């Protein structure tokens, strides 16, 4: 009996005698990758953008992947071989009768399908992540508070971005401390920069190169891959924003950030765990000096921003640099945020490394 080609999912074709469905190998592999990315914690928007950035051809007439296509595929039981007859009523499709198992050759195992459904439910339960152009939070859905076991959420207040316990944000309790996101991400990268997760170091190198070249597409692709690797290799990431044990904290007090004793614990897929700590900003030797004018030109900064970057690269703290330049600390922080934007860096550590790479310091 001849099959109806219009009923075939995008990853299947018909055999030469038109009596059975057959895989389109390259498309079947794409379907499997989409499910694996979903299980790793990536949402439909991120998966679609990742496929488009890699120029993976979409199925059907569209030349690009979109969020709805990804969601439809992830929820389609045709991927495990089921066929559901449908009837269009007033422009909407409605299922008719019971689904027919084994109608299509399954492209994935049912265990993979179920794992993806569970991952999608978890993502919905914690709230959809930000759809930033560079994936703002690589750890969405993974971080929990060491004190109350609530989710640790990405919190943005203007240009200040932090990881803060959900209970703190909602004023329902817990220790009112947060961890500046850029500092946490950089500390976590250094924590994993020892080969404990396969493929991480390679992707971190790619990310640094992409940031140097200011390639937005490459940065997005690499950050998405890093997020996938982290969520596939780490079961839980517990953050103690104020150390262990934590200090007392007023219920209605202001949220303070970057306690000196802050730390995190990562539980890996193999059951092992390790504790990580913030990275200490490296100090440049006092006999090395940067040329502020050349550094400004190289990094496309204003003279004021170049001077601030120079002082930070030479080892000054932001407070001391602000005093030397005759500006308030608030003004220095504003300039630093602008510098981060212009240089595609996320922390002072990244900025110092960029300065050293772009325009090496001079010996005094």
Characterization of this structure:
The chain is an alpha+beta fold. It folds into 3 domains: 5-126, Hect, E3 ligase catalytic domain fold, CATH 3.90.1750; 143-276, no CATH class; 288-363, Orthogonal Bundle (Arc Repressor Mutant, subunit A), CATH 1.10.10.10. Helices cover 41% and strands 15% of the residues. It has 13 helices and 14 strands. The protein has helices at 25-39, 44-53, 67-75, 110-126, 166-169, 181-192, 200-213, 216-233, 292-299, 303-313, 318-324, 329-343, 348-358; strands at residues 12-14, 21-23, 86-89, 92-95, 143-145, 152-157, 160-165, 177-180, 234-240, 256-257, 263-268, 273-276, 288-289, 362-363. Helix 1 packs across helix 4 (110-126), helix 7 runs antiparallel to helix 8 and helix 11 (318-324) crosses helix 12. The longest helix has 18 residues, at 216-233. The protein is elongated. The relative contact order is 0.09. The model is unreliable at 128-132 (pLDDT under 50).
Task: Give the overall form.
Answer: elongated
The structure class reads: alpha+beta
Strand content: 15-25%
Unreliable stretches: 128-132
Largest sheet: 4 strands, mixed
Mean pLDDT: 82
Rounded to the nearest angstrom, the radius of gyration is 25 Å
Q: Helicity range of the residues?
A: 40-55%
**First and last CA, distance:** 85 Å
Q: Write the H/E string, N to C.
A: EEHHHEEHEEEHEHHHEEEEEHHHHHE
| Subunit organisation of the chains | single chain
Which strand order spans the largest sheet, edge to edge or round the barrel?
A: 5-9-11-12
* Total count of strands: 14
Count of the separate structural domains: 3
Q: Helix segment count?
A: 13
